[in-house]
Amino acid sequence: MQKNKIEASGGRGSNQTFKSVPVTIQVNGRKFTCDVEPWTTLLDLLREKFELTGTKKGCDHGQCGACTVLIDGKRVNSCLTLAVMKDGAEVTTIEGLEREGILHPIQKAFIDQDAFQCGYCTPGQICSAVGLLSEGHAKTDDEIREEMSGNLCRCGAYPNILAAVKQVLQEKKVSP
Amino acid sequence: MNPFQFERSSSSSEAILRMGKNSRAKFIGGGTNLIDLMKEGVESSDFLLDVNHVGMNEVLELPGGRIRIGASVTNSDAAYSGLVEERFPLLRDAILAGASPQLRNMATCGGNLLQRTRCYYFYDLATACNKRENGSGCDAIAGNNRIHALFGASDACIAVHPSDMCVALATLNAEIHVLGPNGPRVIRIADFHRLPGNDPTRDNTLSRDELIIAIELPPSPLNHHYHYAKVRDRSSYAFALISAAVGMNLEAGKIQSASIAMGGVAHKPWRDSRAEKLLIGKRPEIRVFRDFSEAFFKSARGLGHNNFKIELGKRTLVRALEEASLK
Amino acid sequence: MKESQTWIGKPVSRVDGYAKVTGAARYAAEFKSDGLVYGVVVSSDVTKGKILKIDSRSALACDGVIEVITHENRPKVSFWNRKFGDQDSPPGDHFRALYDSEVYYSGQPVALVIAETFEAARYAAKLVVITYELEEYETDFHSRLEEAYAPKETKPGFEKPKSRGDADEAFSQAPHKISAEYDSPTQHHNPMEMHATTVVYEGDDTYTIYDKTQGTANSQAYVCQVFGLSPKKVRVRAPFVGGAFGSGLRPQYQLYLAVMAAKKLQRSVRVVLTRQQMFSFGHRPASVQTVKLSAGEDGVLHSVGHSVTAETSQLEDYMENVVSWSGMLYKCENVEVKHELVKADIFTPLDMRAPGATSGLFALESAMDELSYEIGMDPLELRLANYTEKDQNYFGRSFSSKELRACYEQGAAKFGWSKRALKPRSLREGKKWIGQGVATGVWDALHMKSTASAEFTSKGELKITSGVTDIGTGTYTILTQIAAETLGLNLENVTTSIGDTDFTPAPLQGGSWTAGSMGSATQAACFAVREKIFKLAKKLPDSPFSDAELSDVLFEGGEMLLKKDPSRSVSLNDVLKSSRVDSVKAEGTSAPNYLKELPHARNTHSAVFAEVKVDADFGMIEVSRVVVAVAAGKILNPKTARSQILGGVVWGMSQALFEETVTDHRLGRILNHSFAEYHIPVNRDVPEIDVIFVPEADSIVNELGVKGLGEIGIVGTAAAVANAVFHATGKRVRNLPIRPDKMV
User: Does the beta carbon of B80 lie under 8 angstroms from any beta carbon of chain C?
Assistant: First the structure.
């Protein structure tokens, strides 16, 4: 079954230079214009170029949700989003949820309910929860659990994440 | 991910023209599968053409009760569109059983049709995979084949199609509208995906320079007695071990028509129209469903680790039919 | 007089919460440096052999690529293998990446590509062409069980299994007996943050290293030993750690490679592993266990037999305490325990949340359940019938405290255990079988020498510093609470800064010892500061404390006051100001007092009650309810403590139902190296979890009486779930995880 020698990993080298593309993206209300190599993901652009490291890389393959941001109000995985594809888009990251020193209700609820431990999945969880709230599909506990299932938490804070989302849904009911 | 040129196309006809010139070019929709695979080195391309802005982003009602879902409509927008919810709730349920809310917000319906297999070996460049590189061999056949095909596999490939949406489309007899250099054509969903045969690199019958424009759904009587059942290793955000999209039309306590497709069992959503006929005219009873599931799985062939899926598949069919009949 | 504040035992919100919910908390890969370059690791595609040739030309030809480091051109590292050891390394030869041409396992790092951008490095890493000479390999220890051996030298913390009495004889004579084999798969820690290191090159061969680690001092010592650097030139920081669960107990190869590259290039370097590469180092070892139990009609155990054979690497002998619990958890005179290893061509296993106990207690507590059905006795009754107040592993010493009985009682009451039908497969709801199971959990209350530093300033601020990390456990918060309470301050007046080798040295964070050990050290530091402030206060002109002893005063509301006349008080910052002192500083240490501690067994305990619903057709298992009662000494913060237990229970569920690293042993290659295929629970999998903290006073374990909570939540949970699955369906699954294919 074993081959005696094998060559693995590898392929064509490439000297071919592909052009960077100018891109304008609004992030948290601020306009960023820059030249982006097309194979740069929005996640890497945010973290490495814009120094917005609040958005996390947990798998880089759309399998954990740590990189969740809101693009034009919708929650998406920024690790599978090419930055060039979002030219002209409005992106909200975890850094953009606090307004004038006041935490977004879901941020506050995460603290109140201790909905995180190590904190690494937290920005993704919070952005996902913001998306969930605006989508409005989840009302019952089971629906919230299902709609928050795109965000893994290895620390196992799930019951408290549920509680945090419920806290905000409750607050909304009380003061619409 | 290899370097590539990127451009945004503004019309479908222009997109097809541009595609024709470059054999290493690819269309990109939501990118949820393509970018993943490019990062793994499984896919590569010199030129990605963004087809999200060519006017294929609406769910429309057509005369005669048909609906048309534009290829760049996201999975979420399709699932929650009033037309789909009302007339094709089976499709809604199948879409919502897949992936995560974030991925459904990104993934397009056209792209979902083109989702590639989740076979471990396909994803790992260190192993042999005919789907990745035809002729290199298949490490899955004698390897860990727990998630692999029961029907229609070949000596070259035992991969399964991973989509949930496509299983429902198969049940609903969807039509795939595509545009190519020679103009438009319509592919029946049953003919869209193919079996691996001796060329597993090709998942479907689309040619490289053809662009999916829309999915059309003919009017269906299956919006009352329907069910999508999905068995997986965890309760959400996991691919199906087995799934079944079932719809039936009951009149006077008897099954007038039935349509059944299964996921997780073959290189394409799997239907057995001969077995379906067994249901016609019968009462919706467990015994009938069992007979049907036995007939459906008659040609199933286990590979070892996936043998459990035969029994599991039968039970899934029975359950889905039962749930559908009781709705 | 201001209101008195107590913080210890209060459910205060995390002090690092704001940083974590706003994205301000920075993890290892998130520190910037001018001219930073990116390293991407090339992993071996083959399982065993020798590298014949590495062709880096294509990679180097890519725009932005600076260097490809391999064993052929790496900078010098120590010649001595022992220099690659660390605080948690097992005996043996330690793995050295890029050391020579040897390939020991599939996925081994074999080159590091460095480029100006992450994207360029990632692409070029795929272009490195490596030619190998292949050798035969075996990655499946199951196929070599006959080669099992008991290593002579063992890992720190490993207790040699101690047998007693005559278990064979007792087993053969007993009226009731069971003997069963349990299989635990390999698991990988997979913290959400992938292992990463940012090395900031400060010039002059000096480095500030942001590492994902559970021990800043451990990483620092390793780097210094391996690269021959002085500790003065290497500062390691880990202010935030995105989970670890043991993965950060040893310096991982991204640290080594990042430093290597920084040294070679004299530049700042960042190396982040991929999720796939998170499967290329330490892991919970796969094991096979045999448990033999025998008992009388009354359920009293006549014998306990527990043996384990586990995988280890060719290089090191990794051992964890799998079977020792079976000699102490229940009263029994005849115990036979054994721990053996089998070598395979894999990476060395590594401590992973509750190492040893997680698999050992799954087996023991499943076997107890099996025995209960064999006798026809309620499984909780069986455990009570064998309750012990003595640790028979150590000559019958008593426990420093043990409220396990109260855990059983309170957990059972909350769960409604008394209503449970004894017979399996007796409760059904629609298409689902319902079952309920119980299991016991036990873990050590360990005490490690720890040091913290406290500084009180004339502005009224208290600064706590230590090298210790907070991997999500809540260390920042509890240290702040302890410090605030000791000096009678508000939480806002205390700043805790940790995870830095510039601070006082701390042990690895793990084993559930951090809260008790570091908490006690912090308290000691604050006591010392208190004493210094008191001495200053005594010397003030007209001091109300001139005749007082320290024991005569209280520290409350930012003031020092006389107990017998609280109206006589002075604010702490005034004491400093009047004494013309800017700050008062002290270190505090907490170290084991062996004379006091060793005569007692020091453990945490739990009773876990789980309910499952099993789909009768599909075998899909849903955990519908969990009640866990925990006795773990003093609870410093019920809010963060509860989270620790929730996390542990989720891990236990995951162990029972989902987690398994699948290897194709023909290829020697891990197949499910992603979060899509290596399943951990999602939100929808996790039900309501009721956590009960049973009060437990302990004056022996450490100064604070805190026993730690990091592991006690997981141990016991998998068995409780598996036992519930049996109760629901009558099907006993002894090889984890219990997936639908094993139920159909």
Answer: no
